[in-house]
Each structure stands twice: as C-alpha cells, then as structure tokens.
Amino acid sequence: MTQALLSPADAGTHDGADAPGTLFRFATAGSVDDGKSTLVGRLLHDSKAILADQLESVTRTSTERGFGGDDGGIDFALLTDGLRAEREQGITIDVAYRYFATARRSFILADCPGHVQYTRNMVTGATTADAVIMLIDARKGVLEQTRRHLSVVSLLRVPHVIIAVNKIDLLDYDESAFAAVAASVRAVTADLGLGAVHVLPVSALVGDNVVDRSPRTPWYDGPSLLELLESLPVVDEVETAIEAFRLPVQLVLRPQGAVAVAPEDADSFRDYRAYAGQVASGTVRVGDSVSVAPGGATTVVTGIDFAGIELTEAFAPMSIAVRLSDDLDIARGAVIGAAGTLPESTRELTAALFWLDPRALRPGDRTLVKFGTNTVQALVAAVTGRLNLDTLELEPAGSLEVNDIGEVGLRLAAPLPIETFTENRRSGAFLVINAQDGATLAAGIVTGSGAR
Amino acid sequence: MRAPRVNAVTTATTTTTAMTSAPPVQAAGSHRLSQLDVLESEAIHIIREVVAEFERPVLLFSGGKDSVVVLHLAAKAFWPGKVPFGLLHVDTGHNFPEVLAFRDATVARLGLRLTVAKVQDYIDDGRLQERADGTRNPLQTLPLLDGIAAGRHDAVFGGARRDEDKARAKERILSLRDEFGQWDPRNQRPELWNLYNGRHTVGQHVRAFPISNWTEYNVWRYIEREGIELPPLYYAHEREVFRRDGMWRAIGPVSEPRPGEAVETRTVRYRTVGDMSCTGAVESDAASVAAVVREVALSTITERGATRADDRISEAAMEDRKKDGYF
Q1: Pairing mode, if any, of strands A251-253 and A246-248?
Q2: Which residues contact A390 (CB under 8 A, 6 or more apart)?
Q3: A437–B201: do the CB atoms touch at under 8 Å?
Q4: At what angle do helices A144-155 and A119-127 cross, to 10 degrees?
C-alpha cells in the first residue's frame, strides 16, 4: 500500500538550522521589575535577532518616551511588550513568543509576566519550556514571587533552571553581593529539590554575561546566558526517550470511500484503519506488542504511517498513525502503550494543582479534567493542602484561591490509565476545566493514583 | 487605466503536487527530530485535535503561502483520507488575480469545498463603506464574521504566525473569540503543555493557528522540503511598479500611481500576498524556492514591515484589528 511518492531529494539540502535537536524552548520568570523583558530584548539585540524595522520602531518609541536621555538608549522591553496596555503601563501582561536563531540553535522564547495576577500566563510559558531563566534583582534577592515561580518550575519538572542575578551593575559588580544572593536562591532550590541549577551574574541593561562574557565580572568564570542556552540538552531527548511508549489516540483514520490517493490505489485503502496521535513518550517499532487502555487488550503494530510514508519506528514527539493486527474497539481517548506498561485504570487520584482562576476551588466542586485526548468529569473529593511560599511546605487548607499551589484528591467519572507526573510527564499532566463556561481553571499534575 | 503587465521571469520548481512529501528526516539510531519535523508534528497534532473536538471547522484559505502550508499539513494529518473540512476566503475585491487563480486550481485539484465572502458585495449594498485610504484589509472583518456564522463554524483555522507581529506574538494557539469575533488579550486562557482546551459556549468560536511557532524562514524551508506549489508572484518576476510609502506597489485596477509617482519595470517578488491596495513587493532576484530561502535567511527587515502598509497605521494596528474580530 505504498503511495507513489517523490524521492526525498530535498532532504539533502538541510543546513545546520534544520539539523536534529536544534529547536530549544525557554521561558523567563521572576518578580515584576526584575528586568525580564529588558533581558529578553538585550538577548535578542545582542544576538542580532532584531531586524532593522523592528529596531527602528522601538528606537522611535523609546525616544518619544524620553527613554535613555541623550545617549539614544533603547527601552528593550518594547520589543516583547506587544499589547497597548503593556506599553502604556510598562508591564508584561501575557506571554510573548519570540523566535531567533544562532549558528548553533533555533530558539522559541516565551517572555512571561512577573505580576502575581498574571501567574497563569507564566505557567503557560513554563509548561512547554526546556529551560526557565529565573531573574532575580540583585538588590532585592529572593522574593515571594521568586519562590512561587521556582515552585512552579520544580513541580513542572522544567529540565533546566538558570538563575540570572540581574542588575549586577547597580552593585558595582561586587562578587560578595552576588555570592550572597546566589547562596539564598540555592537554599530555596535545594528545598524544592531542584537538581542542577545554573546561577550567573548579569546586567540586562548593560549586557554583561548575556551574550558575551563580561570583563567586569572577572570573578565569574562560567558561561554567558546565551552560551548556556546553546548547550543545554532538549527535553524530548532527555526525558521522553527513556519513558515507555505512549500514544494517546486523537482520532481513527478510516477514510472508506473518501480517499485522497490516486484512483488506481483507492481500492487498497478501502479497509484502511489507523489510529492517529502524537507520540507522548518513548519509541514504537513495527512488530512491537502493545496494550490498549481502556480494556487492556494486547495486539501488535503492523504499520506506522506518516502521510503516505511507511516508517519502521516512531518516537516522541512525532505525529503518526499506527495500524494494528487486531480489529479492536479503539476510539479517541484510548491510549496505546508498550505491552505490559500501561497502569491499571483508576478513578481515584491525588494531584498538585496550580489554581489559575479567580473563583476558588472547594471540596465537592464538580469540574472537567483533560488528560491527553480524554476529557472526563471529576469531583473534588478533598483539598488536602496549600503550599506555603515561605516555608515551601504544605499547610492545611479548605480551598484553593487564585495563584495557590495546592494538593487535592479527585474522583473521576470514568477510569483512566493514570500515571504520576514523575513517571511520565505527558500522561501525568492534565487540565482542570469549568464545565459551564469552558474556562481553564488549573494546571494539574498527578502525584498519586488509586491503583497503587 | 493601464493594463497590468506581469512577466514571470522564472517560475519556481513546481513539478511536485502539494500533497506529497519527503519523509521526516531521521538520523539513524538517533531519536532526535529536526526543527522542521518538530514543528510539523506539532501542527498536525493541533489540526487533529481541532477536527476531533469541534463540529464544523473551516480553514481560512487565501492562496497565500501560510494558508497553503496549513492546507498541506491538514492533508498530511488525515492521509489517506481527504481533508475533512472546507475552506473560507474573504475576498477583498483587491486580490491579485494570479493568487485567486491559484486558489481555485488548488481547491479543484484536492476536491475541496470553498466558500468565498466578498467585501465588494458589502460595499455594493451599503453594509460597508470604502475607506478614504482605499485599503480594504480592515473591511474583511464583517464578511469574515458573517461567513463564520453562516457556515455555523465553531473552529476557524488560520495560517497566522507569532513572528509576524507583536500582537500575534501574544495570541494563543487556540484563541477563543466571542460572538463578535473579538479577541480579549487581557483575559486569555492559560494554554498548558500540548493540552488544548477547545470548550466554548454557544455563539463563541475558536481560532486555531497550527503554525503559530513557525517563522517565515521555517515556512520557506518547509515549502522547499515538501515541494509545495505557490502562486508565481512569490518568486522574482518583472512587473510594472511605482514607489509609495517606501514600497514597490503593483499597478492594477485598484492600485494606480498618483501624479509624481513614476512607473518603472522592476524585478520584484512578494513576501506576503494580501490586498493589492496595501501590499508591496520587494526587489528581488530570487526566482526559485532555494533562492528565496537564501534571501529570507539574510533579510534584515520583517516581512510585514517590508510589505504591509496597513500595519504602519499605528504601533497597535494589528492588535486593534484583532480585538475587532480580524484573524
């Protein structure tokens, strides 16, 4: 059933920018006024990622606003604060995505807001990040918002954490001042169980250690921020490759008469049936035994299709379609996994929630939860605690308010093959959704399930 | 009125049909994907999610390169089946004739349904009025919203990219719009992991942007890799043009030089394709897709900055249009 296809001759023309492993996603975090947008602007400017017309526009606006006095300074925050309200108020409200490339890598940058009321947007930026750059104002040290964002980063298992101690120029590049801030933030990251954390002194305004290593911090012998970003491994290579194969089924491809292939090939697709989805983790090969949830049936992969190309294997995060040897009842919401690795389905779980909605969550509330391609009703059985951002310990709580990080017990209307976020970062992540108005209420990660 | 004259110097390598493709590049033994493969799989995942969760999706299809790429991705997402949704085009009445011809040929070749909402109809019966500056881009919003309502579409795919504009840089991949099509940038839903929340209430719809994370360079690399056919004006050709607002404007029925604007024949191409009355050409010798890829890689000016008069109205021109229901 191969389709007449052209040879992949163009594949040979790929240059470095399209080499494997060259797309890296990172997000900024930190309290308001720590200089996130300025750092991002500096990074883009000094890595020559700002095009002439953008620079001209920002320079013109900066001058109109009297920024930088007579020296022609530029308000770098204008590069990412793209909304009218942001420019008027001088704050970041929502995530701005920027795209730039160096000779070594292409980057997707999520510049996130620092205001506590926009924590939902910071969580948005952090869920897809390979790395988070946490800014700290060297003069202020660790603040509540620093702790909140580091807690988010820790619970979301963001693979790489970079602490940029900013405004070091305002402390005259004093090594001991940097060391004091570095020690206090390391105490927090150790409490949170964050592993390798990179701490570096920067000045976003002046450019020290952003792209080039600064001669004004001779006591710092580590890499610049950009050097770090160019060298850290990508999350899908780090994590999902070693996890078990999981394919949440998005839909069943069963074209019957409505085929898009050449008429002479149409007959061979009359009984075509494949299960389409994006590989969430691990690797699958033709001939592999797989199990299916719900139901637990076991079968064999007879083909992996990618738009007319037959593959011998596929891995995260590829969007594929698999054909199976048995005719099973598989629909959207099913999960196909390496045989024997899917957990028993359960209706009970405990989870950490990042509560993002102004309406509080209370025990007894009914919501929807979305796991992969499955949306089911859920009942809040218990609110078991809220994270105290000073002690970083769980304290008793009767409800979760906006921007709280808390732990809850949930009961689901249908059993799902639930895994903890530690076991599988895709299967263990979910949305909490308001069933009436559809609002996304919380980001959830599974901490335990009733099946074990 | 002068007749438009268009001489294609060279057409691009358009021998392949749009819906065939090279396989994802897999380095032997290495479980790593190239940048284009990651972006392609992300887009296909988004397209499949929207088709699975919505009743009546539609794709905004102008024949421009970004919507052509989204259609190509949709064809790959549902292979060997047909693309399971129709197309909608808002025709300003100022579109380039060769782009409309390409649009219609593509629709016919793939056997798709196309609905065209015409700004001209609205002007003719008085529902819209021509603007003093002659541009019709802002006038697209009403026919667009009517088209969405008439088709009872609950999801509308678009080829918008975040690298195009600083307001677009802020928009979610699935962007909720109210019954007036309005975008509320201060109150967007969190968008977490690759879990897209498409729930909406009656009257609301969702705009879905599968290539949000692609840059102009990614799009051209993908067009090159996949052998995707485009309207010929994306490649260098000779055209009669005149200079206005720092851009080369084509001569056409709705784009005529004013006194003092000298008409010249130049070798140009288009980086974006929109309303003729506000889309400019750039001087270029890039007559093949490979040459365009090289040109885009070296460009020192953004594609909209180079070619769109409508975005020069103010710092927040795009944001204001989006709040009013624009794509």
Answers
A1: unpaired
A2: A144, A147
A3: yes
A4: 30
- How many Cα atoms occupy the beta-carbon half-sphere of B232 within 13 Å? 13
Predicted confidence (pLDDT) per residue in A71-123, tens digit? 456 777 777 777 777 777 777 778 889 898 888 899 999 988 888 888 888 89
Residues of A in contact with B77 (CB under 8 A): 276, 307, 319
Question: How far is C-alpha A229 from the geometric centre of its chain's CA atoms?
Answer: 16
In chain A, what are the domains?
17-237 (3.40.50.300), 241-338 (2.40.30.10), 346-449 (2.40.30.10)
Pick the residue from chain A with its C-alpha nearest to B191: A124
DSSP at B281: B
- Structure tokens belonging to residue B79: 């292979």
Using DSSP, state whether A16 is helix, strand or coil. Answer: helix
Coil vs helix vs strand at A177: helix
User: Least CB-CB distance to A82: which of B35, B167, B213?
Assistant: B167
CB-based contact A146:A62 (threshold 8 Å): no
Separation CA A344–CA A334 (nearest Å): 13
Asked whether the beta carbons of A13 and A119 are under 8 A apart, the reply is: no
At A160, is the secondary structure helix, strand, or coil? strand
Is-cis flag, bond preceding B57, omega within 30? no
Q: Which residues are bridge partners to A101 per DSSP?
A: A106
Chain A contact probe: residue of B30, B34, B79 with most A CBs at under 10 A: B79
- Residues near A407 by Cβ (< 8 Å), separated by ≥ 6? A350, A351, A352, A353, A383, A384, A385, A386, A394, A447
B35 touches chain A (CB under 8 A): yes
Write out the two tokens for A365: 């509330």
3-state secondary structure of B18: coil
A83/B186 Cβ within 8 A: yes
Do residue A53 and residue B301 have CB atoms under 8 angstroms apart? Answer: yes
Q: Do A53 and B225 touch (CB under 8 A)?
A: no
* Mean predicted lDDT score pLDDT of chain B: 86
Average pLDDT over every residue of B234-258: 88
Question: pLDDT-derived band of residue B12, with 50, 70 and 90 as boundaries?
Answer: very low
Residues of chain B with CATH 3.40.50.620: 34-191+200-215+316-323
pLDDT tens digits, one per residue of B66-121: 999 999 999 999 999 999 999 999 999 989 999 999 999 999 999 999 999 999 99
Interface contact B44, partner A, CB < 8 A: yes
Lowest-pLDDT range of A261-265, A285-289, A385-389, B32-36? A261-265
According to the model, what pLDDT value does residue B215 have? 94
- The domain B34-191+200-215+316-323 is placed in CATH, from the list 3.40.50.300, 1.10.3720.10, 3.40.50.150, 3.40.50.620, at 3.40.50.620
Two structure tokens written together for A16: 């470095």
A317/B41 CB distance under 8 A: yes
Indicate whether this complex's ipTM tops 0.90. Answer: yes
User: pTM of the predicted model, to two decimals?
Assistant: 0.91
DSSP state of B34: B
Q: Per the CB < 8 Å rule, is B32 touching A431?
A: no
